[in-house]
Design brief:
Length: 120
């Protein structure tokens, strides 16, 4: 199910597999901290045919570092954090830069509870 919140599409983890069937021009951006990646694991989005980038939002140079990834603006960016709040902020920030974003509203917690592939 997709909900709209502040103009950003919201996607819950249990619907990700179906959502990915709509087109292949999507990537996943996990904006949690390195500590969170180490403690809780990472999404293994490659198993879903989704390229994933890991870039923490805590850094003041976030936007500059994101732009250095050279992600084409015709890719839809699925943003993720632990529970969906930081990723909502990132989605809004990136949409102001001309990117199309969808926030995974239940975050990595939802990803794991939906039995989506993870790396530890």
């Amino acid at each position: 199910m997709i909900r709209f919140n502040s103009m950003i599409k919201q996607l819950i983890s249990k619907d990700i597999k179906i959502y990915l069937q709509s087109n292949s021009k999507k990537i996943l951006l996990d904006v949690r901290t390195e500590e969170e990646w180490k403690i809780y694991g990472k999404p293994d989005a490659k198993k879903l045919g989704l390229k994933v980038f890991f870039l923490t939002i805590q850094d003041e140079n976030f936007l500059k570092e994101f732009k250095s990834l050279s992600i084409n603006k015709d890719f839809e960016i699925l943003t993720m954090c632990k529970i969906g709040q930081r990723s909502q902020f990132v989605a809004q920030l990136l949409e102001k830069e001309g990117y199309i974003c969808v926030n995974i509203s239940d975050g990595f917690d939802g990803w794991k509870s939906s039995d989506l592939p993870c790396m530890y």
